[in-house]
Amino acid sequence: MNAYQICLVALAVGINIAGGQIALLLKLPVYLDSIGTILTGALLGPWFGMLPNLISGIFMGMTVDIYSLYFAPVGMITGIMSGLVFRKLSVKRVKVLAAAAMITVPGTVVSSIINAVLFGGVTSSGSSILVQLLSHTPLGLTGSIFAVQFLTDYLDRCIAVFVVSVFVTMLSGEMKQRLTGSVHNRA
């Protein structure tokens, strides 16, 4: 792990925390706490992709939002999936909707189970309002948790994948090489 990678992981943690706090403050039905995770996964691969959400989930869970701690495994899955997806797809030709779907599905299954089993659909997120509204339909509580979780996760990942793909295409080739460790400083 080089200094550039450590700094990228730290930056990603900050992006996750800032995005998550904005979403909580505004009670948005998206989370915005995975942009840094997806960025790290896209640039450094699946194993590094797990780190930002693990760190930010622990930090936020112990300071401002206890739910972040419980959902940290979802972010770790998102980091792994983003590393795998961006490894297979060229960033310049990334299809945002398809990439977001591939990144979303595994984490959404875990997220829905956590939400249904531990919290009954009520968390700090703005999506809890949608769950409660839909729970009075034929979907019931469990069906509404899965439906809302998939829709909000997918929208969140579409936003994150778009932002990350724009950012990554703007990075210079030299910076990408430094992040991957293939170029070293000669000081």
TrEMBL record:
It comes from the Bacteria. This is ECF transporter S component. The chain crosses the membrane at residues 6-26, 38-60, 66-86, 98-122, 154-172. Keywords: Membrane, Transmembrane, Transmembrane helix. Gene3D superfamilies: 1.10.1760.20. The keyword Transmembrane helix applies.
